[in-house]
Specification:
Transcription Elongation Factor S-II, Chain A; globular; binds 6-O-phosphono-beta-D-fructofuranose; DUF89 domain-containing protein
């Protein structure tokens, strides 16, 4: 049964607490993100207006350009109004019936919040309000003719991906080095376990670069976060506050010859998706346990940098393209470029043969509904998966391991409520727990944290560290299938 927010075991994080990260988000981060979208549309509209004089007056082309321009202007007005309402703590308005999924469902939760007088920008639960924001933005474009397939974050995602080439070449080299030892790795459990940890951590820290959070970071800062390799990882080990790596490795070892299927509930496009592919490749190519990997994207632009089907589709062509990743950026020499090409060729063959698949058709358009994709952008925590997305639920029950990437997935797994920090992960994930094995790889970018010893939390608090939100700390949480 779906639990109403008023019935949650602890109150949700919301901006009424001015010391929490959600307050900062409403005051600073969301307005920056909204301003970025306005700029992007403004630039597109500017280009249209420059092209207008060259079009034949009254032609279809000119009429379409005029309409697109006017629609762009109307979207800008709506976003500006939204910023204004947000700053003045106005109530969230109902999502219009725009023909896409969950408008009614978002509004139903909003009505419950209105009853509790928690329906304004500075009082609504942070998790709900943030999901609502991206769904509302989607409604602004669905109501147009020419902007329906507009992803306001596309250019940002591409640019950051392009800027990740150093770490990408480095990881391709690591995988190339593994190639020479492939058989011995598969046969040596000790070696495999060590590599496993490296891969888990590479995939975990790949989550540190998230565009919705990095509103204030330079390219150099981002490159620093992407530092990969053994030493960097060893240095970061102490920042993993909950470490179930050994448990997940033992579990995977128990799957030997069981044709395991691993699912990734994806987070960010670009570098993080690249690390997901590397991890998936490692599981299939270098371990004897996994036969198939399924990737789950978001079907609308989401939390700035989340993977959409079209991001997924363009990733491998981008990695192949010499104009996207200039081989001269391969600091380790031209052979690094070859290593990358070789690895990506293998990924493409996995996609062709169905070893790697996307949970929805790869050509799914933005906003197109799919029973295995809609739920991830709904208004609910994952506690409600069984009731709200039965087909997806059944499908995931067939998985040997579902990897949840990133902070938002963690917030949705735990409901983003004020659990005491020592609450077991199993308790926090509620009815979701034990149905299929879960591995959550999360760098901390929001207040909710569970399954961490009280003394650890107290020490970090006493040191004045913003350890819950600064992206420097992480949690690796594993929960097996209930026996
Ligand atoms: O990409 P990730 O890891 O899910 O991070 C997104 C998270 O980062 C934030 O943007 C900042 O905390 C949150 O709004 C959101 O939970």
């Amino acid at each position: 049964m779906v639990i109403r927010i008023s019935e949650y075991p602890y109150p949700p994080y919301d901006p009424t607490d001015k010391s929490g990260f959600s307050y900062d988000t409403v005051v600073k981060r969301w307005p920056i993100i909204l301003t970025g979208i306005i700029d992007t549309i403004y630039r597109i509209d500017h280009d249209i207006s420059v092209s207008l004089p060259s079009l034949t007056a009254g032609s279809t082309e000119e009429t379409q350009a005029q309409t697109k321009f006017a629609e762009g202007k109307a979207i800008i007005e709506k976003i500006s109004q939204l910023k204004y309402d947000m700053a003045r703590d106005r109530p969230l308005e109902c999502i219009p019936a725009d023909g896409e999924v969950y408008a009614d469902e978002y509004n139903e939760v909003l009505n419950q919040l209105a009853e509790q007088k928690h329906n304004t920008w500075f009082t609504a639960p942070w998790l709900y309000a943030e999901c609502y924001l991206y769904r509302l933005l989607r409604s602004f474009v669905t109501q147009t003719v020419h902007w329906k397939s507009f992803d306001p974050f596309y250019a940002q995602k591409e640019e950051t991906f392009r800027g990740s080439s150093k770490a990408i070449y480095q990881l391709a080299t690591t995988i190339h080095e593994l190639d020479a030892e492939k058989q011995s790795i598969r046969d040596d459990r000790g070696k495999l376990a060590i590599l496993f940890k490296e891969m888990i951590q590479m995939c975990l820290w790949g989550n540190a670069t998230d565009l919705s959070l990095l509103t204030h970071m330079s390219h150099d800062d981002i490159a620093h976060l992407q530092t990969v390799g053994k030493e960097a990882q060893a240095a970061r080990l102490e920042f993993i506050l909950k470490d179930d790596q050994d448990k997940v490795i033992s579990y995977l070892e128990s799957l030997k010859d069981k044709d395991a299927r691993v699912d990734f509930v994806l987070d960010n496009a670009g570098f993080e998706l690249f690390t997901d592919f590397v991890f998936a490749d490692f599981l299939v190519t270098y371990t004897p346990y996994v036969k198939k990997v399924v990737f789950h994207p978001k079907l609308i632009p989401w939390f700035v940098s989340d993977v959409t089907p079209s991001d997924f589709k363009s990733t491998i062509p981008s990695l192949f393209s010499e104009s996207f990743f200039n081989p001269s950026n391969a600091s380790g020499g031209p052979q690094q470029h070859e290593y990358l090409q070789k690895m990506v060729t293998r990924w493409q063959s996995y996609l062709d043969s169905g070893v790697f698949t996307l949970a929805v058709p790869v050509d799914t358009e933005l906003g197109q509904s799919h029973p295995k994709g809609d739920f991830w952008t709904g208004p609910w925590p994952y506690w409600d998966l069984q009731e709200k997305a039965p087909e997806l639920w059944e499908d995931l029950r067939g998985s040997s391991l579902v990897v949840f990437k990133g902070d938002l997935n963690y917030r949705k797994l735990t409901g983003d409520i004020k659990w005491p920090v020592t609450t077991p992960f199993e308790t926090a994930v509620g009815s979701f727990g034990g149905v299929f094995p879960i591995l959550s790889l999360r760098t901390n970018k929001a207040d909710v944290v569970v399954d961490v010893p009280q003394e650890v939390a107290d020490k970090l608090d006493a040191a004045g560290e913003k350890w819950r939100v600064n992206g420097k700390y992480a949690l690796v949480s594993f929960l097996p299938r209930r026996a």
